[in-house]
Amino acid sequence: MRLGLASTFPPFRGGIAQFNAAAVRALREHGHAVETVTWSRQYPDFLFPGTTQWEPEKGRGDVEMPALLDSLSPASWSRTGRHLAERCDVVVLPFWHAALAPALTGVAKSAKKYGAKQVWALMHNATSHDGKRMDRILAQRFLRQVDGVITLSEPVSEALQEWSPVTLFHPLYDHLPRGPRKDEARRQLGLGKEDVVHLFFGLIRPYKGLSVLLEAMNDLPANHKLVVAGECYGPWEPYAELIRQRGLESRVLVHNEFIDDNLVPIYFSAADTAVLPYTQASQSGVTAMALHHEVRVVASDVGDLATTVVPELTGRLVAPGDVQGLAEAMAQPWNAQPADVKGAFEQVKKRLSWSAWASLLTQQVESALSEAR
User: Fold this and answer.
1) Are 231 and 51 in contact (CB under 8 A)?
2) Does the CA dihedral 18-46-202-212 come out positive or negative?
3) 156 close to 150: Cβ distance less than 8 angstroms
4) Architecture of the domain defined by 2-171+353-372
5) How confident is the model over 201-237, as pLDDT tens digits?
């Protein structure tokens, strides 16, 4: 099959870029021809809350595919759709933020105009995280232009049920190398061998519940340490003030910056648990990283996070916003047998592999093409 993807790819930074790169690798390994197009301009600067949209020491000159798509240029939307339609039978357009929905809508219209057999939406979210009414309207306009909808979680499918979506899953990231030994990773981060280390990883946004986690840390013994690793999208001061108020300065290590891929394994190797105290979620790339590194997760029972948690083996679930419940889940010893834990991680990795994901996606698309014929 000839597939086309117009989206963000490295050296744009972030989970969506990594997801798309892994998806293309898996689809090509299954024998499909995949044409990729990325942005010449993704988010306008006034809409981007971080410091840069690029991986460290990278920029536009490092883009290795056609960068035809400008989020603010309708002419580029038409060019992108035509480019893909001339080279592909099916166009897949990943959606994760409503700011990009007008561009994706334009690409979908153009691709169909110039002969693409089908256009599919790959919906990471039903709308933007913390989305407002206009975000929902923009997402719906986009969905009206596509022939099929794929999601990565049941909650997103439920929110989009009028579009009859196909529900897949978020595969586990496997492109990262394994990290150093735990004691070496901790040495590099300034942690002790006897510390109980919890990791909060990824972009810091209100819905990710860091304030809940800091309150839970206040209820834990002094040997419990928290590493916060990720750039804060918004003001950091409220979190800093909470750390000061609770006297956690010596127990919370803050790396308020984007974590480059080559450093990610160090953080997960140092951790006893990855903590995801999210107040809402669809699915999470952080759980995908944690499971790849065989680090247990303590997560809020929101979205599809439960699908990767085998109780007491790969992790624990708590109610969102429950400070006491979160503290108890973080403090409770893990007593399962090592062989059982290893087996549980292996089963999850097999079930949520990129190969399985690519196979399911192409089966759905091929079935839809056959019905259309």
Assistant:
1) yes
2) negative
3) no
4) 3-Layer(aba) Sandwich (3.40)
5) 998 999 999 999 999 999 999 999 999 999 998 899 9
